[in-house]
Amino acid sequence: MSRNLGVSITWLGHATVLYRAASGKSVLVDPWVEGNPACPPASKNLEAVDVILITHGHSDHIGDVASIAKRHHPDIACNHEISLYFADKGVEKLHGMNKGGSMTLQGVKATMVHAIHSSTIKEGDRLIPAGEPCGFVIEFENGTRVYHAGDTGIFGDMKLIGELYHPTIAVLPIGDLYTMGPMEASAAAKMLGVKYVVPIHHSTFPALTGTPAELKKRLSVWPEIEVVELKPGETAD
Ligand code: NI
Ligand code: MN
Fold first, then answer.
1. For residue 148, how many C-alpha atoms fall within 13 Å in the half-sphere facing its CB?
2. Nearest CA to 174 among 229, 212, 136, 207?
3. Percent share of the chain, pLDDT over 90
4. How far away, in angstroms, is 225 Cα from ligand 2 center?
5. Nearest alpha-carbon partner for 165 in 127, 193, 195
6. Is residue 51 part of a domain?
7. Cα-Cα-Cα-Cα dihedral sign, residues 139, 100, 70, 35
8. Residue 170 lies in a domain
9. What is the count of structural domains for the chain?
10. How far apart are the CA of 177 and the centre of ligand 1, in A?
11. According to the model, what pLDDT value does residue 168 have?
């Protein structure tokens, strides 16, 4: 269904989202494709990836960074610590940054914003600190702005993100347990002042209990906000 979102959004399952800008550039956030049990086989062969954004170091968000980087040579923006980690793995075109800053890669402007979560990389029996978790405000060349929250709990400065950047779309985790659930995500959407909410980080494992149906129920008191419910592999635009 076409809603005139200003950008095409494909949910690859769990927390992995592929944005295709009107300019043709594709931005992949938190690549976890091969080992992602929610990603449909037909969606695993990505045609092009121009930019990768990484919100934090957990394996369900960085699982396929190295393999996709090798195949597609995208520009990769992430926190400083994760950029150093992947540089050691031979990954190229890494752009370390930190919260509050913006970077424009291939015409796509990414502003790194706060998130409440943790960030570590498990490698064998080692647990490597991976900087602070973050979200991104992504501004495409046609002016469309998306707040991609990453894994996070709700926090009051989401109101500030709404006031400063005026995103029309929020891509929010709703699975509960590791992130916000539907109740918090509905309040977040209201604070952000967005028109559309795309729920992610749900339904992958039984432990993630938050559902789009509950989010819709919670948001029914604010009919100006629409829940864009996708199944893994589906696209909204
Ligand atoms: Ni996480
Ligand atoms: Mn996660």
1. 28
2. 212
3. 99
4. 25
5. 193
6. yes
7. negative
8. yes
9. 1
10. 11
11. 98
Distance between CA atoms of residues 166 and 184, nearest Å: 20
CATH number at residue 126: 3.60.15.10
- Structural tokens at position 148: 């991609």
pLDDT tens-digit map of 56-110? 999 999 999 999 999 999 999 999 999 999 999 999 999 999 999 999 999 999 9
CA of 77 to the centre of ligand 1 (A): 17
CA of 130 to the centre of ligand 2 (A): 14
One DSSP character per residue, 10-70 reads: EE-STT-EEEEETTS-EEEES---TT-TTS-GGGSS-S---EEE-----HHHHTTHHHHHH
- φ, ψ for residue 81, nearest 5 deg: -65, -40
Give the Å distance between the CA of 150 and the centre of ligand 2. Answer: 8
- Residue 3 counted as domain residue: no
Whether the pTM exceeds 0.70: the reply is yes
Percentage of the chain with pLDDT > 70?
100
Number of Cβ within a 10 Å radius of residue 62? 23
Ligand 2 centre from 119 Cα, in Å?
A: 10
Q: Is residue 12 part of a domain?
A: yes
Which pLDDT value is given to residue 99? 98
**Residue found by looking up tokens 């539907």 in the block:** 182
